[in-house]
Design brief:
38% of the residues lie in helices and 12% in strands. The protein is α/β, with parallel strands linked by helices and 435 residues long. The chain folds into three domains: 206 residues, Rossmann fold; 94 residues, Rossmann fold; 132 residues, Rossmann fold (3-Layer(aba) Sandwich).
Length: 435
């Protein structure tokens, strides 16, 4: 299949779209392609996910099971058989890019996935990487793997980088309405990339190369990480001065120009902001550059859980109690409000720190009924229902994730002590300590 034929098939919605990695990025993208009239074949190494999707079930809180069932009825199929990679005209990689324990990029998911797909690729296909990574990954790592089959990128097959911009559970933005950056390894690759996304995304932002697209995604998240680091540091200064940083931010945000509000918290969570800056700092060292500003923000943000725990200790001490032996209820263990996603959640680190200091830990999270199995953390706990009686039995309630489902008035009325790490309580009260 020639480039022009592939572009025409994509624009006419005659192509099968392969989505590789059916998680928080891949699943919404699958639904959008299905909604737009494409047939989608989903790939995932997790056979339990594949089985649930093929039954019309969901495993992500903000994605309705009905949407999965409707996609199934329209032709969507999930598989763990990567030999079927020859079937789609397009394959979109939405796999994790975490850090290792040395804060260095772990591209194993991307590379292993690519190695699983490449033996089954055929001429006339396009491969798009959406996973956040350092500039150069697409043309330094993926391109040689594809060309090892004897393909010429830009002629036989086409290679694109188009970073995901999902914001789970945000009702104001959807996969369709968030503008999409697209970069190709060659001009022909970019043309195919625009055809791949042009029918499902309202606005495309073409850029000159995959490296520009890769750097764009990193800049977006580094911008947030640095500004959150700044406001977290300001929070500590304001706390020492007896000033409520949230009141300061609300006042500053009334300025109609030159200020964008960012909010402090107990640490950074999710699969992007705590991780992505270190992809650039790692790559920058190859060019002899030290990214001091970015790394300083990372140090501040990673120190926040310890600071919040120190506020819990201080608050309990002021009431004549030690942290050791005290009962602490952590409110919210997802990394952000209104989702069930626990990736890099600072709440989990808070629980680990509190437990290591002798506190007796429980948690409450309406989106996570039981603490899941995690590689690095284990708590044999289930979510505590919030009632007047259950709240009253804890020495301290720590607001770690500000889910809208929590009844904050109930919590305030019946908790002996609240340590608020999210600024949910605007008015001061005897039983509330800001953290």
């Amino acid at each position: 299949m020639t480039k022009n034929e592939l572009v025409q098939r994509l624009e006419d919605k005659q192509s099968i779209i392969g989505i590789v990695g059916l998680g928080y990025v891949g699943l919404p993208l699958m639904l959008r392609y299905q909604e737009a009239g494409y047939r989608v074949l989903g790939f995932d190494i997790d056979k339990s996910k594949v089985a649930r999707l093929n039954k019309g079930e969901t495993y992500i809180a903000h994605i309705r099971a009905e949407a999965i069932s409707e996609a199934r009825e329209a032709g969507f199929e999930a598989t763990a058989d990567f030999s079927r990679a020859e079937e789609p005209d397009a394959m979109v990689l939405c796999v994790p890019t975490p850090l290792d324990r040395h804060l260095e990029p772990d591209l194993s998911f991307v590379l292993q996935t690519t190695d699983s797909l490449v033996p089954h690729m055929r001429p006339g296909q396009v491969l798009s990487l959406e996973s956040t990574t350092y500039p150069g990954t697409t043309d330094e790592e993926l391109k040689p793997r594809i060309e090892s089959r004897g393909f010429q990128v830009g002629k036989d097959v086409f290679l694109v980088f188009s970073p995901e911009r999902e914001d789970p559970a945000n009702p104001d933005f959807t996969t369709r309405t968030i503008p999409k950056v697209v970069g190709g390894c060659t001009p022909a690759c970019l043309e195919v990339g625009k055809a791949l996304y042009g029918q499902v995304i309202d606005k495309l932002v073409p850029v000159s190369s995959t490296r520009v697209a890769e750097m764009t995604k990193l800049l977006e998240n580094i911008h947030r990480a640095v500004n959150i680091g700044l406001v977290n540091e300001m929070k500590i200064v304001a706390d020492r001065m007896g000033i409520d940083i949230h009141e300061v931010i609300r006042a500053a945000a009334t300025k109609p120009f030159g200020f964008v509000p960012y909010y402090p918290g107990p640490g950074l969570g999710g699969h992007c902001i705590p991780i992505d800056p270190f992809y650039l700092t790692w790559k920058a060292r190859e060019y002899g550059i030290n990214t001091r500003f970015i790394e300083l923000a990372g140090e501040i943000n990673r120190a926040m859980p310890e600071w919040v725990v120190s506020k819990v200790v201080e608050a309990l001490n002021s009431r004549g109690k030690a942290l050791k032996g005290s009962t602490v209820l952590v409110l919210g263990i997802a990394y952000k409000r209104n989702v069930d996603d626990m990736r890099e959640s600072p709440s989990v680190e808070l629980m680990e720190l509190l437990r290591s200091k002798g506190a007796l830990i429980d948690y409450s999270d309406p989106h996570i009924p039981a603490f899941p199995q995690m590689r690095e953390h284990h708590f044999d706990l289930k979510s505590v229902p919030l009632t007047a009686a259950s709240l009253a039995r804890f020495d301290c309630v720590l607001v770690a994730t500000d889910h809208k489902a929590f009844d904050y008035d109930l919590i305030k009325r019946h908790s002996r002590l609240i340590v608020d790490a999210r600024g949910v309580y605007k008015e001061p009260a005897e039983n509330i300590v800001k953290a």
